[in-house]
Records
---
Amino acid sequence: MISEASNDIAAVEDALRRAAARGRSSAGADAARRAAAQASTRLGQHIADEGLADVSYASADSPFGRLLLAATRRGLVRVAFPEEDEDAMLESLAQRVSPRIVEASSAMEPIRRELDEYFSGRRREFALPLDWRLVGPFGRRVLGVTAEIPYGGVMSYAEVAADAGSPRAHRAAGNALGANPMPIVIPCHRVVRSGGAIGNYGGGPERKRWLLELEGAIAPQR
Amino acid sequence: MAVSAASAIATRPAGAPARGGPPPFQRFLDAHRDAVWRLLISIVGPAEAEDCFQETFIAALRSYPRLRHDSNLRAWVLTIAHRKALDAHRARARRALPVADVAAVDGRRESSPDPRDEQLWQAVHELPPRQRSVVLLRFLADLPHGEIAAAIGCSEQAARRSLHEGLTKLRKVVPA
């Protein structure tokens, strides 16, 4: 009988749906999720080791909290402070660089080491290669001048604008510094107000002061 | 690898950008790794799931930037996983190694599954390959008939027919 046969089929479908749901919620499913998570971590590592990703990223502990670091094959491309939204950062990298973005802790190890050394006062210059592709032409000139300010030194916004070839554009220079995609490594914290005030900082003025004190550019506040 | 036409439809995945390309690959991996793992375990068993998992996502990574933001990424990656699993399955058949035992079928190595489920999955596993694929893609991976057809490379009608044949055979292990 046709109706009996289709009832049977419906019973099989129900049984399969129930079994699949049980499979997803049982203790064994947790084990499967853990196995999938581990396989996915190994995959990220493999992709980074083989150079298959266009962007690798990882977090790094710092005195400011958890920084996010991203690098392309050319070099470091982004440093994000803890307040920045991770999804927004990845989304922006996907749009502006490539969606082939993979989390890979080991690929970020050299960058992490240099940052550790810097934060503990053992490093005065970063040697790691940089990828400037997130920076426009004017920003490139401004941040290029900024990158030349030595450890322990400071420049004013007006001086940076002048050295970048646009002496009247110190406000625009301030904006370019605020848009620095690699703070700390490109030392925009070394650009201060002409009167000696510390000025703004993307990561907050307290962090700017902390960095300048670390570098000995200003006396510790008492 | 070509992006199948059938996978470029359906809804935009959560977190995808409003325009342009697909979401960051890591987010895509995070979102679909469990479903891919379950499907692979059910077809090739735990011993080969890892290799198939890596091959699946590396193949996906290769063509990833060419995807549209509104592609059905889940169906797309499950299709790739299914193909990789069948490749592994065929390679193993050539080597004449034993088929994965039923305890491996659903990745439930650390728990004893409901006895009814065990018998059912065993019966699914013993179906002819296409019927087994269709049943797993329908009930384990939750794919609609059109996506199943794209995944196994047949017409939607043929996929429905295989599914019906498979379900008919499974009646013997399901109490009416």
---
Amino acid sequence: MKAFLGMVMLVFMAKAHGQEWLDQLDNKLSVKSQDGVFRANLTGLLDQEGYYVDQRPPGLLFEDESFFNPRLTFFLDTQIGPHIYAFLQARLDRGFDPGEKDFDARLDEYLLRWTPWDDNRLNLQFGKFATVVGSWVQRHDSWQNPLITAPLPYENLTPVSYDDIPTSPADFLARRSVPDQKDSWLPVIWGPVYTTGWSAFGSIGKFDYALDLKNAAISSHPDSWELNSSLWRYPTVSGRLGFRPAPDWNHGISFSLGPYLTAEASDELPSGKTISDYFQYTLDYEVSYSFRRWQLWGEVFLSRFEVPNVGNADLIAYYLEVKYKITSGLYAAARWNQELFAKINNGFGAEVPWGNDMYRIDLALGYRFTRHLQTKLQYSFGHRNASLQQGEQLVAAQVTVKF
Amino acid sequence: MKCSTEIKAVCCVLLQFTAYCVFGQAAVEGRVSLPRPQPWSVPPLRYAGQVGEITPPDPPIAVVYLEGQFLTPQRTSNRLTNEVLQLGAQFRPALLPVQVGASVTFPNGDDFYHNVFSYSKPKRFDLGRYRKSDRPPVEVFEKPGVVKLYCEIHKHMRGIILVLDTPYFITTQTNGVYKLQDLPAGHFLLKAWIDEKHVYEKPIDLQSGQAIHVDFDEK
């Protein structure tokens, strides 16, 4: 109740006095040297979210019941001359994924970038930062995401685990009948995947490209993303090629390949095998179109997990999303998501899907009161092709103050 | 025949004089002390993607305008077409004065999208996304005040439409020099608007046929 009142208070305070004050704050949080060589800009997002679910929350929502999730995010963009750029994203919240902990403070992203030329043909960067795979990363923060939750491929857990090795295909298939093991199972791609490593990217004409070498797979748990001693032992390579034939269309294909198991799984692997023998391979095609008040996005992922004692576990996951601006402040958004699992041999000669096929529809209304205040309301209905459902219905509300 | 020509000439002068007395032809000229152009560099993208060609913003200018009670018939806006172009990922001009009731078109001059919007009190709008070749949207500005322009895609873009309740206004050159002409006679307030924090004003008395010099310094 207190958190709900907090949301309402946040809206009224930001609406009544926020615009001018936050405009002024924008200017005060920007510093630059007199010659303009050094400049730093601190910005942020203050979110308050509430989730109501009719069952155990789906995807990467970690609480067992309905809950509130406050989040304060700081972004620091720093430029030193035209060729050096540094970025830092710090968060205070209840864990990387909503409801994971009671309180958490993290550096989610930090990077140092060198741009050798004056144009954008090449950028080289090192640090902990979002993946180049897919198109959702560009709009994943609460201000830009038209909905509250991520698309299904970015958050729906599959029965593949990073540390729990199935002893047989039957053991693996049995996971379809138990609730998601959120501390162990993996999605196709874990949100924006802030893994650590190197990246080279740029754009030439209508094309843009990116290639990164990171310390963990795109499906990996956030605990694996940090800079650690095993940084280069099990690297993941990802790349993307984008093509923009006209302002309204954008196409991109991405790939990613790398081991997805963590060191904890080593002891359970078949003899003679190492973590490096089990890869996640992913191919992604993305398209977007926008014109006037319409924006549309679509992505399809083909992913393969090489599962010890099982073989190849393939799946296809996709979503189509649309946003329409009804007025200057009000918009509606909808997203159709589906995840389909391929069949594997169950060890007794039969071919059966290794996961429960799922569809989900997300509907949202959002309103931007000012350049600094936004609120959203989302309803989702998801259904698995199984007797065990998980969070079929979800209602979420979010208030965001941007500064 | 000769007499008729002389009568015509006298009538013409009398007509001009009458118009001169009634409508006035005063002018104000001078210089506004403008802030130095800020050092500028291309804002970096946080994530990989296309940038498009981004050019520096125009140097700062000011709007000089006359406030007061005007006895003469009010002129309509001194521009037939008010336009804010999006070019090089900048608003051009970055400061546009218009009279209340004026319309402004927003053509996209770039080969990539912009999404112009404003949540300002005098005018709230969101133009969506359109190409260079598309017919640009038009907005009418009915209330006086400061309308701040932003682009949803390019966060660095800043523009202002200054909606004025006076027909007598002009923008300075980039060196601050201005000349406001065809003004009525009378007692008025001359204002120089650089930004919301820097608005200067001076009371002036204008007489028909007179050109006065008014400078606005920061001090």
